[in-house]
Specification:
It is a single chain. The protein is of the alpha+beta class and 252 residues long. It has one domain. The chain has five helices and nine strands, in the order ββααβαβαβββββα. The strands form two sheets. Strands 3-9-6-4-5 form a five-stranded mixed β-sheet, sandwiched between helices. A four-stranded antiparallel β-sheet has the order 1-2-8-7. Helix 4 links the parallel strand 4 and strand 5.
């Protein structure tokens, strides 16, 4: 299923200097429609009267709780997939990729480089998403480890516009490939489209002495701001894969 949403593209939409009594320049904004993928997820369980009568515990409640937890896990995968690979069936909305200073390695300066640029274009990419293998590499970065006992700085450098996060929310997702770190501004990146909310339906089949319960929902995720997410790829050099030219224009 596909939900149709407006697609708004801004180009040269920032404020521009004008002379006295001059007309402000007109921003270039284009509108179109786009289809966002929605998926239907659910499960039905049947319990016969024989099973219910022979079991002293409530069989249904733990199952419904397990289904709900599984749906939440699947939704987490879905939002990461939308942010990483885009929300369009035809593609073209993938997260921007930048490289590192030295291929196959990741150091704090590679992350700091991205955070500094983000501060310049008013993006706080303070949520990190990796898979398990990359998480083990990231967690070994010295700046993320316990610094107690190493002494402090003589002067504390306190950025005005939050160049670096005080703490990073680190999410582990199997949707991420090895050597890839996605940094996300969660306030601007993605929103959930609810085609049909989570619902629980039950039915009775007297001819079989069976009760059935179905749990399901239809949802999708739409990427709102392309600059709200960025991927650091350890297999690419930053000199070849740097920040996009149009993002640099926004920074300027």
């Amino acid at each position: 299923m596909t939900a149709t949403t407006p697609k708004i593209t801004f180009k040269d939409a920032g404020p521009a200097e004008t002379a006295e009594a001059e007309t402000f320049p007109l921003a270039k904004i284009t509108t179109a429609e786009r289809g966002v993928r929605c998926t239907k997820k659910g499960r039905t369980v049947e319990l016969s009267d024989e099973v219910v009568k022979s079991c002293p515990i409530n069989l249904l409640s733990p199952y419904l709780r397990e289904v709900y937890e599984t749906i939440i896990a699947q939704e987490n995968d879905a939002v990461v997939d939308a942010q990483l690979n885009g929300d369009q069936r035809s593609g073209g909305d993938e997260a921007q990729v930048v490289g590192v200073e030295t291929v196959s390695t990741i150091v704090f300066d590679d992350l700091d480089n991205v955070w500094i640029f983000g501060a310049d274009i008013n993006q706080q990419w303070f949520t990190m998403v990796t898979n398990r293998a990359t998480a083990k590499i990231v967690r070994k970065i010295q700046e993320f480890r316990d610094q107690q006992g190493t002494g402090g700085t003589r002067v504390t450098l306190k950025p005005v516009n939050d160049i670096q996060p005080a703490e990073v929310l680190h999410i582990i997702s199997r949707r991420m490939g090895d050597g890839k770190i996605m940094l996300v501004n969660t306030r601007r990146a993605t929103r959930q489209l609810v085609f049909m909310p989570l619902q629980v339906d039950d039915a009775r089949y007297p001819e079989r002495w069976v009760n059935a319960v179905t749990v399901g929902q239809i949802t999708g995720y739409e990427n709102v701001n392309k600059r709200a997410r960025i991927v650091i790829d350890m297999s690419k050099l930053f000199s070849a894969y740097g920040f996009p030219a149009d993002w640099e224009k926004v920074a300027a």
